[in-house]
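Escalation from tier 1.

The customer reports that the assembly of two entities below gives different structure tokens on two consecutive runs. Tier 1 could not reproduce it. I'm attaching the input and our single run for tier 2 to review.
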Amino acid sequence: NAGVTQTPKFQVLKTGQSMTLQCAQDMNHNSMYWYRQDPGMGLRLIYYSASEGTTDKGEVPNGYNVSRLNKREFSLRLESAAPSQTSVYFCASRPDDYGYTFGSGTRLTVV
Amino acid sequence: QKEVEQNSGPLSVPEGAIASLNCTYSDRGSQSFFWYRQYSGKSPELIMSIYSNGDKEDGRFTAQLNKASQYVSLLIRDSQPSDSATYLCAVRGGSSASKIIFGSGTRLSIRP
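Tier 1 run:
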């Protein structure tokens, strides 16, 4: 089982460039999430989708947009990257009353 | 006040001893509690979940929950060097029923 698959694993962007982080899960989970992890800050929720067709802001949504393309896929877009968005990004999914399964992460550097 | 608080550590424990990790949370309506382990450069991995007051044991791991004190802990018995990692406490429910809020993690180091 693949679980949660994220692409790319690494990315370097210049300030102002845009990119989309892709996430797909094959576990038939309703809920999907995007987190960022910075040293000393723990995991902070960017956006989530409780079910197909719905998305909601998390703790740190500014500068990001999301699309829940179907039940399997949940993408995160940076429209105009900033150095403050340098971070490790994790996608996760979960069944209705259990913990998350995380993807392997995307290490993003904005220069 | 942070919603989920953990001591950042590092917590150093000798091999074979019991490691005790603690976490407090602010939302009294919280319903589900999780412990994740994260090795350096890797993604978090769920190791324990607990939903009701008391203890829950799984192998060398025991999760303890006290909702009255808004406190959850993780005990690791017979600590091994492979247990060296950052442990993240996470809480779901109450005002955040659809999402899980994480603490910033406790770094655990098991010394041989």
